[in-house]
Design a protein that fits this description.
272 residues; C8orf32 fold; 6-stranded mixed sheet; 3-stranded antiparallel sheet; 12 strands
Length: 272
């Protein structure tokens, strides 16, 4: 019952009630704004003055606060802090040839279930998935030296528009489990599932069509070709906090091979 309620809240908002998004802009086009925290807002293409204001905020990486209605349409916008000084991430430059990341293999499903059940459930209601996932991965590494991965699902513009969907990505830890004679990947998303689940089981919670998400290693494949699929799926190392980290790997050869403590402090303060 608890998981079902969380899923309902994930998709819906109260009629006649405005929601508030406080985040830098990740990207925008004439009709849609994608925020760094994963939220989506829609804008009237005829609102040129507002569109220009949002474009300037996106270029400067301003922290902004917007109000949206129950259809995710933009009501108002104001700048909270100009420039990128509010950003709490530091992308580490590494030689790609020197990077190796091998996730820990959990010895069986019973051990995986114990791990799932001990993940931190003290999140605040308004927490963001990227912060929850980062802390879940960090705490298991710090306490039990377990190396996990991240499962990122990206919803395409066509899917978002068709369903008036309020998010453009979701993320959770991904662990490797020894099952029978092979290795299996399972998503550990305590907010939306009651056990470790397969990637398809996990994405089915959010993709109404139940179509599989296309697996890719390049953020640009999702970002520049948003109409042919409902969603894309990317696996990253546990150190990657947001889609910006995935994009930076592809476009700037910026790789992460450790947790950044500024990001960890930010994730704790914003989610737990």
């Amino acid at each position: 019952m608890k998981k079902s309620l969380f899923i309902i809240l994930f998709f819906t908002s109260c009629l006649g009630w405005s929601d508030v998004i406080r985040s830098p802009i990740h990207s925008l086009n004439k009709t849609m704004i994608r925020f760094e925290n994963g939220r989506v807002a829609f804008i009237d293409s005829n609102e040129k003055l507002l569109s220009d204001q949002l474009t300037e905020a996106a270029i400067r990486k301003d922290l902004i606060e917007v109000k949206i209605d129950d259809e995710q349409s933009l009501i108002s916008v104001q700048t909270i802090q100009e420039g990128p000084s509010h950003l709490k991430r530091m992308n580490l430059m590494e030689d790609p040839a020197s990077i190796t990341f091998e996730p820990t293999v959990i010895p069986g499903y019973s051990e995986a279930l114990k791990l799932f059940n001990r993940l931190n459930t003290n999140w605040v209601r308004s927490s963001e998935c990227s912060n929850r996932a980062h802390i879940w991965a960090f705490e298991e590494f710090k306490t039990n030296n377990l190396k996990s991965q991240k499962a990122f699902v990206f919803f395409t513009a066509s899917y978002i528009n068709r369903n008036r969907f309020k998010w453009w990505f979701h993320v959770a830890p991904l662990f490797t489990i020894k099952e029978n004679s092979g290795l299996e990947k399972r998503v550990f998303d305590v907010m939306f599932t009651d056990r470790p689940v397969t990637i398809k089981e996990w994405t089915d919670n959010f993709v109404f069509s139940k179509r599989p998400c296309k697996l890719t290693t390049k953020f640009s494949e999702y970002d520049v070709n948003p109409q042919t699929e409902d969603c894309y799926f990317i696996i990253s190392p546990m150190y990657y906090w947001t889609p910006t980290d995935i994009s930076n790997e592809e476009t700037q050869n910026r790789f992460k091979r450790d947790f950044n403590q500024g990001e960890i402090r930010a994730a704790y303060s914003e989610a737990f």
